[in-house]
Amino acid sequence: MEQLKGQIVRSLAGHDAGGLYWVAETEGDFLLLADGKRRRLSRLKRKRRKHVELTGLSAAVAGDGQLRRAL
């Protein structure tokens, strides 16, 4: 699997479909995601890799405010 940490992805499935997220970590087939607003860095969302698409963008963030501006 390619390096996904720091990448920006778009959700394809679930109630959050269409939303942009930042990949904080990977756990096998799962990604731990944050968007800085509903899903902060302290409470990451766990989502399967097949339910997101890569946008080709990446960001280096230090906090929720910086993450929100990047998305």
Q: For this entry, what is the oligomeric state of its chains?
A: single chain
What is the gyration radius calculated from CA atoms? 11 Å
Order of helices and strands: EEEEEH
Question: Number of helical segments?
Answer: 1
Strand order of the largest sheet: 4-3-2-1-5
Low-confidence stretches: none
Largest sheet data: 5 strands, antiparallel
Structural class: mainly beta
Report the strand count: 5
Distance between the termini: 23 Å
Mean pLDDT: 91
Would you kindly provide a written description of the structure presented here, covering whatever features stand out?
10% of the residues lie in helices and 41% in strands. A five-stranded antiparallel sheet has the order 4-3-2-1-5, with no helix packed on it. The chain starts with 6 loop residues before the first strand and ends with a helix. It is mainly beta. It has one helix spanning 64-70, and strands at 7-11, 20-27, 30-34, 45-48, 52-58. Strand 1 and strand 2 (20-27) form a beta hairpin. The relative contact order is 0.28.
